[in-house]
Specification:
It contains 11 helices and 11 strands. The protein is of the alpha/beta class. The protein has one domain: P-loop containing nucleotide triphosphate hydrolases (Rossmann fold, 3-Layer(aba) Sandwich), CATH 3.40.50.300. The strands form 2 sheets. It has a 9-stranded mixed β-sheet with strand order 5-4-6-7-3-8-9-10-11, sandwiched between helices. A two-stranded antiparallel ribbon has the order 1-2. The chain is globular, with a radius of gyration of 21 Å.
Length: 336
Amino acid sequence: AQFFQISQDNQHAPGLAIKDLLSGLKAESQLPFLKELQERQQKYKERGPNDLGITGIPTHFLDIDKMLNGFNNSNLMILAARPAMGKSAIALNFAENLCFKNNIPTAIFSLEMSASQLLHRLISSQAEVESEKILNGSLSGNEYQRIVSTVNMMQKHTLIIDDQSGLKITDLRARARRLKEAYNIGFIVIDYLQLVAGSGNMRSQENRQNEIAEISRMLKNLARELNIPILCAAQLSRKVEERQGHRPMMSDLRESGSIEADADIIMMLFRRDYYDKYDKPGLAELIVAKNRHGPVGDITLTFRKEVGQFANYTPVHSQPEAAKANKEAFSAFSPE
């Protein structure tokens, strides 16, 4: 496993090559201090409703916060989608918002992507610079400065990335406990469920369902033990591809029975333009299929694939200027 931190030793002089800037991402084989321990925020569970009118931790996705009441401690949340739909991107966006906007120490267990790949995505999303440009160094002066500002900002927060592949659920639990003790982490992201190994050594198909049941149960218990929200990405089965319209359903969760029972919240990500580039391009639907303590429904988000960034969606007709214009237009045709 590699635990990454952003070096604070670099002096970002004008004209510094992007490869030199990114060389400040240091890897160590053992768990280091990501930064000096800072004063920890008062636990969210001890706070009353915040400015957004919710009692949970705000994700800063307004419609998500409204439906879920924010992310709540002790909750296990499943975020499912087909490959290439954007589940890793939105999971990372959640981590960014909780860590950088709420200053909540956050841990990401990335069983698919390396920590270096994840950090490139983080910088791309936060700086709003295409990842490809960061990789090949073809940056404008403004883009370069945005990256420098982003790296400086990230240094001020506690974000830990564990990229150990094939991690057993028992090892993941032990590492999470250590991170809670060392950093008082308040949010965990796991990417993704089907890559987590059970505590035993049997990986046959007939035993995999039992393994998934064990993993989902232990994740729920871990969320309760640490008293923090845990978001776990998951893959949907190929049944989605065989269905007309390709709209996912909760039954599409692979080895879904135990997941449906253990999860407090199940969300599924769906982008129509993945199948037809002319069908609602740039929009995504987050389907809240299960919400143990609240309503379910569909939430529309915007998606900028080039920077891996999901954002709040505001339909034109709901904007004040448009609403006023529509009212005036309709009043012109209304009977006296």
